[in-house]
Give the backbone structure.
Amino acid sequence: HVRSRRQRQMCIRDSHRRERSMMNGLNIYKRKDGRYEGRITKGKTENGKRSYRYFFGKTKQVVQAKMKAVQRLFAPVVELDLTIETLYDEWLLSIQHRVKESTVANYQLKAEKHILPNFGEKKTSELSAEDVYQFIQERQEAGLSNRYIADILIEMKSIYKYAVRKYHIVNPLDGITMPKVKKPEIQLLDEKEQKKLQEYLFQNPSRSNICIALTMATGLRIGELCGLQWANIDLKKRILTVNKTVQRIRKRGSNSKTEVILTEPKSESSKRSIPIPEFLIPYLEKFQGEADEFLLSGKKTPTEPRALQYRFAKILKNGKLPSVHFHALRHMFASKCIKLGFDVKTLSEILGHSNVEITLNRYVHSSFEQKSAYMSRIQMGV
């Protein structure tokens, strides 16, 4: 009788241990030899008995990974009777609370111009890899860049990842080969041309020119410069604070109308404080305004980035300098800082990057003269 009771207690403890080890529907328990064991039902034999597939590992996590891999491999295909347009609407509603307004507008533009006209009426479960590759080819033939096509596909993948999480469907975009994106060539001014630009800006010290000089000396993004107010500038401590950016986005519900918005920077790392080089202070003091006025406009409303682009293009033309994008100033600033001996971590924080890899891979450029100078150090020897 005692032995029977002990056996029952052991069975109960064994059962509880098995129950505690049930993870996401996976039956995993610890064996007497210290290993973990899991099993998945394969079905029934001809005699009507259940058949199992067994998995073993040193840890519970190893067994769980093995079991989930097999489950994914043999998971039944779920037919989802939703159109891609309906799925897109669901997905967009689910992300609106956690992304910026400009990001939502960007998603909507790509969806309404490319995704929905091509796939909107198709059932979610009917999309195939062949459909996607045909879409890529058609967009390429229409003249879209591979980078832009890749951005469209990234949005489609996000939509389908949402469907996988919510409806447990098989993702037709898994394994799709993205179009090859070439690293864009950024045209920069050389050192002589940069010096010539600086001389032009300081010889003609207008509000716009001094703000452009500020960008050359701090690496600000164009939207960040347009969003700077005098409340963000401490001339005594020589510090500027970046916490806003100006963007032009499409109005919601409109195919053509746009609006200029003042919003938070693109990421948390973009919110930062930057020391102002001392030589700029006297020039900034000449244009100092009220706390709620913008540096660039001198008013309580900001200048939009597109207007500053036009002014910058005119300055380059008047200074008889090559035409470069305003964003090139940021690249030139980064390269100059590396040449001056800045450590990459410091430079990354000044630029507002989330990691140093972005700084090194995208923003640091060496001139041919610099390469030649380094190569000249190499000498023949033992």
Notes: Strands lie at 22-23, 26-30, 36-44, 50-57, 233-234, 239-242, 245-250, 258-263, 272-275. Residues 15-25 have pLDDT under 50 and may be disordered.
